[in-house]
# Entry
Amino acid sequence: MNINNIHTVYLLGVGGIGMSALARYFLIKGCKVYGYDKTKTSLTEELEAEGIAIHYDENVSLIPDAVKNNKEGILVVYTPAIPKNNKELLSLQQSGIKLYKRSEVLGLISQEYFTIAVAGTHGKTTTSSMIAHVLNECGVKCNAFLGGISLNFNSNLLLNEDAKIVVVEADEFDRSFLTLTPNIAIVTSLDADHLDVYKNKNEMHNAYKAFVEKINPTGTLITKQTYLTILQSNNKLNTLTYSIERKADYALKSKKVEDGNFLIEVETPTDVLQNMVIGLPGIHNIENGLAAFVVADLLKIDRERIKAALKSYKGVKRRFEFHIKTNDLVYIDDYAHHPTELTFAISSIKELYPNKKITGVFQPHLYSRTRDFADEFAESLSLLDELILLDIYPARELSIEGVSSAMLLEKVTIQHKKLVQKEEVLSYFKTNQPEVLVTLGAGDIDTLVQPLKTMLNAKAVNY
# Structure
């Protein structure tokens, strides 16, 4: 398929963060863009306002006629999150129309560019948006397809005229990242995840190894030293390492907290870089910032310009995002849904606010993930001073017998812990004033963010 000959696009699951970036891309390219999603969200409303026609009923008759006629120049894209028994998906498959996964389309688009691909079980959205921001700020024209809403761009898509570089997230779910052939590949983390897709951690590691083998022969792998033995079968591949814990090509030499941010020193292959500020606080974001710095340094961008760009980085919506930041109350929202992510987020908050009570509201995501990492989740959540635990968000799964939030709560070791229904969270905080509050999870907990922010601000005014 020639991606440049497309004039009409239909996306099943258009409201997904990756799918919506594709929808915006083709709309800007002048295509007619249509979509289906089961739920209206603020993101789908934005897409509709931009000119994308979306319907929310699973109804074959609502598929655009141009798509049904299967004429040339038609592209139908679906996300693996769409159930296999979806009526529209089945109808399109039975009609003989060629359907493409989101990852396949992203792979086709990226073939036209020098590709920087960010993979990893966590950190890839922040790292990829940092890289895109740094390049953009430093005058390097690039396009970027992001897995979150960049607060610098106010979008999950960055397009620059005459761009020669594209920054993409390389998603391991459903082995999607194997459609890419990157020139620079970053692997941020290799913690076990998506065990509903992979049988075990070794199988997941094999998928990452296959991804690394797809790097252009003249390209570069950027990762942690400890991951090299897992990832690298081709000893001729160029590699650069980074770390906040141990010796590496780019290593954290020192850090201190200043005005709620980390001020760091970085040891590079040639010298020590001082007084670098990562705009987004959090220990894990120092690591993400290091990875972004390595990419920019590899591209020979002036280091002072890189430092200035990293300092001006605002973050990604729902990635350690501050909503209230006063002396009396701090409210942070974070997408963390894996034990390692939870540990990073909670530990960072504790380091920033060592003398305050940390209250966390956590919504587990997926029954299988909760089952597979129950002990690890309990250990991470026990870092909090108080835990408000919501029911499991099932996403694409059916319930699993014996797996529940009550089961998880039993394993948490802190004294102040409570199982609360999502619709009861606001009333709980009307009578219980937090000092530092963090909402955590990848399900629909984000629908609580604005109501919580409004209610807590109102309480502060009335108080």
